[in-house]
Amino acid sequence: MLFEGQFYTEIGELKGNGQMRMLLLRGGQGQFLVYKEVERGAAEIFRRLMQQPHPNIVKICGLKAVDEEKCGIFMEYVPADTLDDKILRQGMIPLKEAKTIMLQICQAVWHFHRLGIIHRDLKPLNLLVTAAGQVKVTDFGIARLYRKDAICDTRILGTAGYAAPEQFGFSQTDEKADIYALGVILNRMLTGQMPGEMLYAGDSRIEAIIKKCLRMSPAERCSLEELELALGGTGSCKPPVGKRILRVIPGFRTGSPVHMTLAIVGYIYMTFIFLFGLLTVRDVIDILRWVAGYLLSTLGLGWFVGSFGKAAHGLHLDKGGGKVFLFLVYGMVSMVIFYVALMVGCMPR
């Protein structure tokens, strides 16, 4: 097989499903490469990984066209066992060692998330651990690029037990799907078992972060930075400055489009009420009426938001035009509540 002008001999097949081959190749000077065939639509993922490599991700050396449906990926050969092999040998991994391994995985995940890549199949079998203790993430065969305009994944893929619930549902997977898998992997390292069989109970901070990784709702799962800090890392897996600023603002902390849409409406509403009161209050009685009306109308809006939020998410109103609809609905409701409060005399007249 030719690659970059050199001929490589096929040593043997590492694994494959009959249609997509994975071969070990040896060059004329004794160097080794791994060749894997993937669907051609995944080429952009491997192109990004090749252009921006990371020490904790198996290096992509090149791409080669196979036919109209497939392309070949040339990768570095890493002579190492998988994390699954290590767990099988040891039964469970000591907490200190598990933290070291997981911190390296976090670094790799942070890198490919910045490239817009969602792995979707993180599991011990796809994590190589060298004799020196270096971790390498591999097998991006079912990875996908996150698209802001997509409603759901085009295909339901993933490994049962490690795949997040949304990978088998009707919503698009994002970075939080990989966070779920990291929680399962960490639990497996520390207990030797899946979370459904045995949930880790030991270090309180690690126990809490595993539970947060495994929450059903993606919006309620921890961030990669939170996981890294819980493991004793330095917090290097930080999101962009804009996201960090939004995270401290109520309504924007979860990153959920529904929550953020409601927060925008709420902040516009509160600003309007504040300006209205500022222009109309004349004495202490009016100030008290203004405060009472403000609290009444804000609590009313909050109750409506809480009662309707889950339904809005279930109806996918957090996608595309649905966000505009949400904005209009909550805007009208806030005005109605404000008007009612004004009419009953709670607001200054």
Would you write up a description of this structure?
This protein is α+β, with helices and mostly antiparallel strands and 349 residues long. The chain has 10 helices and 12 strands. The protein has helices at 43-51, 83-90, 95-114, 175-191, 204-213, 224-230, 241-247, 257-280, 284-314, 321-343, and strands spanning 2-3, 6-7, 9-13, 22-26, 32-39, 60-65, 70-76, 81-82, 117-118, 127-129, 135-137, 144-145. The strands form 4 sheets. Strands 3-4-5-7-6 form a 5-stranded antiparallel β-sheet, covered by helices on one side. A hairpin with an 8-residue loop joins strand 3 (9-13) and strand 4. The chain is elongated, with a radius of gyration of 26 Å.
The coarse silhouette is elongated
Q: What Rg do the Cα atoms give?
A: 26 Å
Stretches with pLDDT under 50, minimum 5 residues = 149-154, 344-349
Percent helix range: 40-55%
- Work out the strand percent: 5-15%
The beta-strand count equals 12
Mean pLDDT: 76
| Helix-strand string | EEEEEHEEEHHEEEEHHHHHHH
Largest sheet: 5 strands, antiparallel
Q: How far do the termini sit from each other?
A: 85 Å
Number of separate helices? 10
What is the SS-derived class? alpha+beta
- The largest beta-sheet arranges its strands as 3-4-5-7-6
How do the strands and helices of this protein lay out in sequence?
Layout: E1 2-3, E2 6-7, E3 9-13, E4 22-26, E5 32-39, H1 43-51, E6 60-65, E7 70-76, E8 81-82, H2 83-90, H3 95-114, E9 117-118, E10 127-129, E11 135-137, E12 144-145, H4 175-191, H5 204-213, H6 224-230, H7 241-247, H8 257-280, H9 284-314, H10 321-343
Antiparallel strand pairs: 1-2, 3-4, 4-5, 5-7, 6-7, 8-10, 9-12, 10-11
Helix pairs in contact: 3-4, 4-5, 8-9, 8-10, 9-10
